[in-house]
Write a structure and sequence with these properties.
The protein is of the alpha+beta class and 149 residues long. It contains 3 helices and 12 strands; from the N terminus they run H-E-E-E-H-E-E-E-E-E-E-H-E-E-E. The strands form 2 sheets. A 7-stranded antiparallel sheet has the order 4-5-6-7-12-11-10, with helices on one face.
Length: 149
Amino acid sequence: MILFWEDRMAERWELVPHQGLRSGDVEVLLRTGRDRLRAALAGRFGAPDENRPYEDQFSNEHTTLFLRYDDGLLTSILFIAGSLQYDGIELYDTTFGTLEPALTARGFELREPVEFTDGMDVPGLGVNIATREDVGSDGDEIEWVALGV
């Protein structure tokens, strides 16, 4: 049990508002070069699962990240599996019914999306958060937490 907990703790990601994600010494920051990100993520994920001209998907047993690039620079991040937190608030591995009051209690406003077509924007954090229901499935669980430039 302790090994599982320690392993899970190693895969906890932290939101860096308006900039990207961090887990330990690994950072996934917007406007970073693709080659640099691939090198930084290789120790955690190996090679990308999906290798398209402008997109990479990285996944392991705990986390899945979907990254989009323009001219070789990271322009959007979709966190689509794992634990993503900001200041003690779990952003991904939760439900919107739990997340919304936690965010509003901290003074964050939720708005209709601007860049993404689904979910809610949290301008104070620079993210879009969509539930499974938002994207056409069933449930209040979070489908993605997305950042973009």
